[in-house]
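Encode chain A's predicted structure.
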Amino acid sequence: MEFQQEIRGFLMSRRARITPEQAGLPYVGGNRRVKGLRREEVAMLAGLSVEYYTRMERGQLGGASESVLDSIARALQLDDDERAHLYDLARSVAPGSRRKRPKRASPITASVQQVLDSMSVPAVVQNGRLDLLAANDLGRALYADLFDMAQQPPNFARYVFLDPRAEDFYADINQAKNLLVAILRATAGRDPLDKQVTALIGELSTRSTDFTTRWAKHNVRRHTRGRKTVNHPAVGSMDLAYDDFALPGDPHITLTTYTADPGTPSADGLTLLATWAATHKQPQTISDDIRRIRPRHS
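Encoded structure for chain A:
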């Protein structure tokens, strides 16, 4: 992903969605040749020269001060996630930013797995690339389709865009796709040198025109908390709240828990999911026991 093209696409997409009226500018009659704000209008709202803002929109964000970035964020009415993305993009073109980053040790330690296993609700660990790195039994049961995928580690983006089972699993597949693309876009802006992220984006762009269309919108989002409704093939529909907790040492690798409101059908669904998960563990255990006690014959 070219850094300058990413900056240009993001800033142009943000100003295209704001009308002069929304920006508090006086109404001027006649046809406008651009959708949303013009560059000179953004520059005026941000208190910058048109030439300076034009250079920034062309990708020359390196060296921009915090106050300048804040002014642009206010002019374009960026939300918190979009503002963070703008700062990430500025850092990606700052002098000395393109050095290869040291490889981190795996965050999935024995203690992290113990924490997962001690939880009574579905829990998974995922990274910004949307890989599922670890899970407890309930988490594996919830996302059984993903752990069954041929390509491992399981990846939410591959599942949603390349696996037809996702259409049935998510009650709102359109919302799921938009969220995952926005998360992946934020990840790419945060670390443009991550070859695995770049490779995943290239794979999805090649194999899914739907992904390419959504990717071109330049929307960004951080995965922190929210609700989703899923249609689990074994237990049916569940409305679940999810919450992310950053793991020590890497704020972009998170432990995500899924809960249901007490006394609801979704809470009953989680109880059924636990039974289903235990049942699906039994055959292997029973077979192992049979092998241990069955006498060998020559």
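Confidence is low (pLDDT under 50) at residues 282-298.
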